[in-house]
Backbone:
């Protein structure tokens, strides 16, 4: 029986899937199976997947287009490994990814593990990505999602208590944050391996896509906010502070990308001034700034190493 079941949801990924699968085949340990779920692709994805059927450990599951969450769930239901390793079809692992995760599990008896990654953008820019898990449920909820699916390994029995990924296409892209929130609600914690073990491809920021994603983020925030307020774990004022922080972070990102909207950012700050003076907001902004500083320090310290890893894998 394999230790790891690698789940790769595939929808029209003919341009990237070969590099992704190659990074799996090149792993330094072979204690895995691969489950590629073809989620109704209309391009050459299925033909490419079939070229790997010669490998006994490589499984292909075809289904109509049901979305990312449903594709992951199909793979998980058919997995026989002790651990589920998520891998998006445009991301790439380093050759020692599974070996490092396996060693970490043996040393710490971990149930859920996150590792760091390298962000690679279409304009050839690279950056370190810290996937350090939050300390508790409220930090995860109020601070927003900072974990990347392709950098997560989950013991399969966790899904028995937490449940699978949501399959609502209207929340596409938020399946992972919803899952982490439910994971923390069940009292489960995520251990962190602070070394880069993969490349996370990111498109050059598209404002319309970013705006759509932000709206869905606020939907998840509202849904869980209602639950947390009813359970007494969150006050209504803290809910509003957290929402203001997510909107502020979004406006800052918009300004940094476009170099415009500065006046809008100032007006937003003035209108929500009372929220920015709270202890919670100061804490959220401090953690946000600390994370950005930590990423920049990693970039400076490991610039040469990151370039070498990207050059080797791409």
Residues:
């Amino acid at each position: 029986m394999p230790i790891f079941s690698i789940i790769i949801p595939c929808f029209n990924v003919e341009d990237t899937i070969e590099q992704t699968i190659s990074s799996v085949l090149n792993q330094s340990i072979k204690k895995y199976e691969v489950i590629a779920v073809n989620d109704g692709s209309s391009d050459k994805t299925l033909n490419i997947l079939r070229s790997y059927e010669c490998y006994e450990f490589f499984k292909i599951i075809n289904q109509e287009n049901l979305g990312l969450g449903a594709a992951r769930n199909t793979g998980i239901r058919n997995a026989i490994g002790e651990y589920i390793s998520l891998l998006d079809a445009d991301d790439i692992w380093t050759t020692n990814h599974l070996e490092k995760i396996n060693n970490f599990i043996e040393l710490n008896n971990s149930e859920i593990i996150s590792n760091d990654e390298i962000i690679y953008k279409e304009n050839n820019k690279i950056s370190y990505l810290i996937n350090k898990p939050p300390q508790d449920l409220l930090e995860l909820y109020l601070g927003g999602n900072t974990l990347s699916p392709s950098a997560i390994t989950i013991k399969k029995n966790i899904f028995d208590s937490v449940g699978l990924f949501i399959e609502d296409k209207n929340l596409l892209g938020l399946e992972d944050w919803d899952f982490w929130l439910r994971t923390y609600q069940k009292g489960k914690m995520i251990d962190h391996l602070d070394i880069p073990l993969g490349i996370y491809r990111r498109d050059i920021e598209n404002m319309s896509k970013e705006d759509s994603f932000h709206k869905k983020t606020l939907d998840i925030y509202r849904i869980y906010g209602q639950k947390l307020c009813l359970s007494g774990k969150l006050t209504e004022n803290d809910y509003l502070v957290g929402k203001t922080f997510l909107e502020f972070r979004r406006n800052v990102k918009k300004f940094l990308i476009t170099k415009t909207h500065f006046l809008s950012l100032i007006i937003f700050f003035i209108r929500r001034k009372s929220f920015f003076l709270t202890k919670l907001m100061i804490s959220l902004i401090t953690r946000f700034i600390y994370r950005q500083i930590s990423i920049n320090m990693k970039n400076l310290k490991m610039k040469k190493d990151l370039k070498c890893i990207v050059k080797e894998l791409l």
